[in-house]
Backbone:
């Protein structure tokens, strides 16, 4: 299996429900920006709204960092609207909810469960050049944590602007980084 880290985000052009409207989004909408794609199995489920709400609560922080967030499932944009209208939790979402009804985008990123026609919980962080900098895929029974995603995006943005520096485990904004060199070998 070949890694997708540092590869270009696959082409996408998908309808979405956002701000009470239906809109289309494509690669052109994220050119020159950081973006996060949060794939989830299905609308009207159980773990999914807890995750999407968690991300919604951090959405303002992501926006301040210049990051656009997209949730993605194989449901239609009509289903996204119906879920939004029916759920107080989903009403909190201000970011676009992409509708990958054909499963093509999920398949291209390796998160489509073909048997159930649902996405696994995949999270992808894309830099302004369109390169995938973070890819995590987990079983659908395991929820994600938006605080940890926020920390990882901060680290990705830091290393993108600080050549030669890397972020150690549990690194947070303002903490010390490392500059790999022969002097550090065996000393950490």
Residues:
């Amino acid at each position: 299996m070949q890694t997708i880290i540092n590869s270009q985000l696959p082409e996408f052009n998908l309808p979405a429900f956002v701000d009470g409207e239906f809109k289309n989004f494509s690669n052109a909408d994220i050119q020159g920006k950081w973006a996060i794609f949060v794939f989830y199995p299905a609308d009207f489920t159980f773990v999914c709204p807890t995750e999407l709400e968690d991300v919604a609560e951090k959405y303002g922080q992501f926006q301040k960092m210049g990051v656009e967030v997209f949730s993605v499932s194989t449901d239609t944009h009509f289903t996204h609207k119906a879920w939004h209208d029916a759920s107080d939790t989903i009403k909190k979402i201000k970011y676009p909810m992409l509708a990958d009804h054909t499963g093509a985008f999920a398949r291209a990123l390796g998160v489509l469960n073909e048997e159930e026609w649902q996405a696994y919980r995949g999270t992808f962080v894309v830099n302004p050049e369109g390169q995938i900098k973070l890819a995590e895929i987990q079983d659908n029974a395991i929820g994600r944590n938006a605080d940890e995603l926020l920390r990882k995006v901060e680290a990705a943005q830091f290393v993108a602007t600080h050549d030669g520096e890397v972020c150690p485990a549990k690194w947070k904004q303002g903490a010390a980084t490392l500059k790999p060199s022969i002097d550090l070998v065996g000393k950490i």
Remarks:
- The longest helix spans residues 47-64.
- The helical segments are 47-64, 77-86, 104-108, 146-161.
